[in-house]
Amino acid sequence: MGHWWQRNILEPGKLPLLLALTAFVLTFLVTRVITRLIRAGKGPFGNVRAGGLHIHHVVPGVVLTVVGGFGAVASDRHGVAGAGSAVLFGMGAGLVLDEFALILHLDDVYWSEEGRKSVEAVVLTAALVGLLLAGFAPFGVNDLSQQELQSRGTVAASIAGNFLLSLIALSKGKARTAVFGVIVPLVALVGAVRLARPGSPWARRFYVHRPRTRARATLRAYHHDRRWAGPRRALQDLIGGKPDPRPVRLPDGRG
């Protein structure tokens, strides 16, 4: 374990990335726990206000991200300052992406249906950073044996193949499959070979003169969304909290 840690984390300089990812995930989880307690009216926490203005936690998140980012650029990644900057950057990124939907919509949609985009952004970001961390490419590792070079070359080729399949899945309108397919080869393969979603670049390019294929793709997308919408919403509710119900609009516009 110690040899693996030295060769694959410390020597390539991946410790700051590991610290940033850990701080990112923990900050998001802690923030969600606190906001859910505030929402339920429990615990000693409350919204931060200044002169009647609600200060969203994206504000300190931006400050931490800027400080941590510039600190990382100015410091040695192998030193204490680099590690500290990585932690600050991860904390800031966690706070910022926790309110990604607010930035996207320029509105306080934290507990609305649109607020689910924040959870999706955090999960996808953590997956991508985890991929960078888990990649055993030999960059930064010195004195590799021939067996290590061959092994790492095989892994690099495999990752490149998965990435190509993920690009195909992305062109078929399957963003989540594309992201997780980079990590899990089978997911990338399934996303690449199955029918594209209607309206995707792949469907617009290859299904134009194939009405039966378009119909099959539309029907498959409908059944897929109907089958997985419930479990996906349940997982998002578990991670980020259940959104507030949409207000009922009366026919005359009241409500």
Describe the structure.
The structure is a single chain. The protein has a domain at 1-144. 68% of the residues lie in helices and 2% in strands. The chain has helices at 2-10, 15-40, 58-74, 80-98, 100-105, 116-134, 146-171, 175-181, 185-193, 201-206, 211-240, and strands at 49-50, 53-54. It has a two-stranded antiparallel sheet. Helix 3 runs antiparallel to helix 4 and helix 7 (146-171) runs parallel beside helix 9.
Keywords:
flat, transmembrane, transmembrane helix, mainly alpha, two-stranded antiparallel ribbon, 11 helices, 255 residues
Question: What secondary-structure arrangement, pairings included, does this model have?
Answer:
Elements lengths: L1 H9 L4 H26 L8 E2 L2 E2 L3 H17 L5 H19 L1 H6 L10 H19 L11 H26 L3 H7 L3 H9 L7 H6 L4 H30 L15
Antiparallel strand pairs: 1-2
Helix pairs in contact: 2-4, 2-6, 3-4, 7-8, 7-9, 8-9
What is the CA-CA span between the terminal residues? 62 Å
The largest sheet is: 2 strands, antiparallel
Uncertain residue ranges: 136-144
Helix-strand sequence: HHEEHHHHHHHHH
Which overall shape is indicated by the principal axes computed on the Cα atoms? flat
Strand order of the largest sheet: 1-2
In short, what is this structure?
Helix content is 68%, strand content 2%. A two-stranded antiparallel sheet has the order 1-2. Strand 1 and strand 2 form a beta hairpin.
